[in-house]
Design a protein that fits this description.
heterodimer, A: 363 residues, alpha+beta, Rossmann fold, OB fold (Dihydrolipoamide Acetyltransferase, E2P), six-stranded mixed beta sheet, five-stranded antiparallel beta sheet, 8 helices, elongated, B: 276 residues, mainly alpha, MetI-like fold, two-stranded antiparallel ribbon, 11 helices, 1% strand, globular, MetI-like (chain B), ABC transporter permease (chain B), transport (chain B)
């Protein structure tokens, strides 16, 4: 491990694809030593292709992949020295736990006794003490994925690639392994790139989250930043702000910005920081269901938008009600603790600070 | 209940009769003939068979086992390239070509090999034309080597077909995991792919073994008469002397050898089922 001051991995304008189809359109990404990165995206966004291109299983068509400064884009997978954990575990059924976990060490010419000692220590770390001589086919899913993790960690990698390693596990084991992987990463200090489609997994494990969309990086940042300051409508929607309303931002007579939505009796005045204010003109705003509350349809707006609407659906997922409200020609989902009958006129109260504003695009 | 049982028997009867007439009766008859000498039970026919043909028995075993071993090497190499190859045109060409010998009968293969492997055959002539060999250095390969080459050429595609299928159905990630940890492709083939498809390889080799044990045309066509394979000896005993008892004794020896292989095959498939 090491690489003083240098990035553990630097991906530079990387493109890759299958045949005539380009999957990655110029990816730039830098991961510091010891940093945990999660790549989050929906199916087909290119996140697994990016990981496989870094590992060398997929050929890049242009761009560079630098591991501690050395470009490895032209090297076969076995020469790259990055360790990978696979979604299907990919353990070798004809070998024992020791055979699987010690394989990388055997390739590096380590003596048998030393391999047994190191694998034993790793097994202890993974809560699998004493399973050295067990057949991997006799292990549970969680144990298998721990062995697969141990196999990758046995070679003391500076960079670990995790390809949806938890998606085949049941919910409880998944939560536990999430925590264990993160703890091991902190303790051993390797850099990690974790590909997942599970938002919470990415947010809770990573130092920085990379959101991918259509083979491009949509946003990179710490979990809090991407959650509170999404860079695009796609990121906002992907991170749960699925309600959308159209607004008009107009400067008032006093110079302060006023926001007007269709059906709103009077506009709301912008009182937040000037740099966070939307630019004048038509804007779209995205918000999460928990960012809004229900109030009277004629409530005074203050520093919030109050959209008059009618309760259309109601569900009780536990702890609060989830309402579907028809307001301003759109169907909004709102979380609220109070009980409202269907068909009741309500006001959807949206504090301006909870809205993510973007300029309205012609589409 | 009894009616339906009779009906079932009646339905199976034609098939049973066919099996009995065409297989069980000749098999039983040949067994009886093999163990009978001048009307009494005896091992005399086996004594004569071993006296006359013990060299040929060993020769047959040697050729069949050597051909099997070389077939295994060739099949692993071809299936390995098909599975782990990274040069698309090479993999494509190999995939398209390797099955061709499957469609060529043994006798035609033997005939082709006669013209290919002879002292003035296509192979030697090509080597001479390429300057690799002096015309005086050329030698005919029309002996045990010719038989082995023909068997390998004919059987490697069959074993490859089964082996490449088994390799293709492996979890690709197990291969990638090996390379990821630093194993080159040859190492991945030997240490990761091959152990996982070993049951299939053994089964394919047993089937191939039984096939090569029973080929008459190739040893007759490609190599000389002494020593030769058991199939040729059996044909000779019958055609030249009408000596069915000794021919049948040789047949029983062949059964015994292939029976061993079949036992091995059954044991493998039972294990495979137990593991699944």
């Amino acid at each position: 491990m090491g690489g003083h001051g240098r990035a553990a991995i630097e991906v530079d304008r990387l493109t890759a694809g299958y045949g005539a189809t380009t999957v990655l359109h110029g990816i730039d990404l830098s991961v510091a030593p010891g940093e945990f990165i999660a790549i989050l995206g929906s199916s087909g966004c290119g996140k697994t292709t990016l990981l496989r291109t870094i590992a060398g299983f997929q050929k890049s068509t242009s761009g560079a992949i630098r591991l501690f400064g050395q470009d490895v884009a032209g090297l076969p997978p076995e020469k790259r020295g990055v360790a990978m954990v696979f979604q299907s575990y990919a353990l070798w059924p004809h070998m024992t736990v020791l055979g699987n976990m010690g394989y990388g060490l055997k390739l590096r010419g380590i003596a048998k006794d030393e391999i047994r000692r190191r694998v034993g220590a790793l097994l202890a770390m993974l809560n699998l003490t004493g399973l050295e001589d067990r057949k991997v086919t006799d292990l549970s899913g969680g144990q298998r994925q721990r062995v697969a993790l141990g196999r990758a960690l046995a070679v003391d990698p500076a960079l670990l690639l995790l390809d949806e390693p938890l998606s085949n596990l049941d919910a409880k084991v998944r939560l536990q392994l999430r925590y264990e992987i993160k703890a091991l990463q902190k303790r051993l200090g390797f850099a990690a790139i974790h590909v997942t489609h599970d938002r919470e997994e990415a947010m809770t494990m990573a130092d920085r989250v990379v959101i991918m969309d259509g083979g491009r990086i949509a946003q990179v940042g710490p979990p809090e930043e991407i959650y509170h300051h999404p860079a695009s409508p796609f990121v906002a929607t992907f991170l749960g702000a699925e309600n959308r309303i159209d607004l008009d931002a107009v400067p008032g007579p006093d110079g302060a910005l006023r926001l007007q939505a269709p059906g709103m009796p009077e506009p709301a005045a912008w009182a937040g920081e000037a740099e966070a204010a939307p630019s004048p003109g038509p804007v779209v705003a995205y918000f999460r269901e928990e960012a809004a509350t229900l109030t009277a349809p004629d409530a005074a707006p203050g520093e919030a938008i109050v959209l008059p609407g009618v309760v259309a659906t109601r569900a009780y997922p536990g702890g609060h009600y989830r309402y579907g409200v028809d307001a301003g020609g759109r169907h909004l989902t709102v979380k609220d603790a109070g009980y409202h009958e269907l068909g009741t006129p309500v006001g959807v109260r949206l504090p301006l600070a909870n809205l993510h504003f973007f300029p309205a695009s012609p589409s | 209940m009894t009616d339906s049982r009779f009906l079932a028997l009646g339905l199976v009867a034609p098939a049973l009769a066919l099996v009995a007439a065409l297989f069980l009766y000749p098999l039983g008859f040949s067994l009886v003939t093999a163990f009978t000498h001048e009307g009494v039970l005896s091992l005399a026919n086996f004594g004569k068979a071993f006296d006359l043909y013990s060299v040929d028995i060993l020769y047959t075993l040697f050729i069949v086992l050597l051909a099997g071993a070389l077939t295994a090497v060739a099949a692993v190499a071809i299936a390995g390239v098909l599975t782990l190859g990274e040069t698309p045109w090479l993999v494509g060409a190999l995939r398209a070509l390797y099955r061709w010998p499957l469609f060529i009968p043994f006798i035609v293969a033997g005939q082709c090999m006669r013209t290919f492997l002879a002292k003035n055959g296509l192979m030697n002539n090509s080597f001479v034309a390429m300057g690799l060999l002096d015309p005086l250095q050329t030698a005919s390969l029309l002996d045990w080597r010719g038989i082995v080459i023909t068997f390998v050429w004919k059987q490697a595609p069959f074993v490859t077909l089964l082996l490449a299928g088994a390799m293709a159905s492996l979890d690709r990630a197990t291969i990638e995991a090996g390379r990821n940890l630093g194993a080159g492709r040859l190492r991945v083939l030997v240490e990761i792919v091959l152990p996982q498809v070993m049951p299939t390889l053994l089964v394919a080799l047993v089937l191939s073994f039984v096939t090569t044990m029973s080929v008459l045309s190739v040893p007759m066509m490609v190599a000389g008469s002494q020593p030769t394979m058991l199939t040729v000896d059996m044909a000779f005993r019958i055609n030249a002397y009408g000596d069915y008892p000794v021919a049948n004794a040789l047949g029983v020896i062949s059964y015994a050898i292939t029976g061993l292989a079949a036992w091995f095959y059954l044991r493998q498939s039972i294990r495979k089922e137990a593991a699944a």
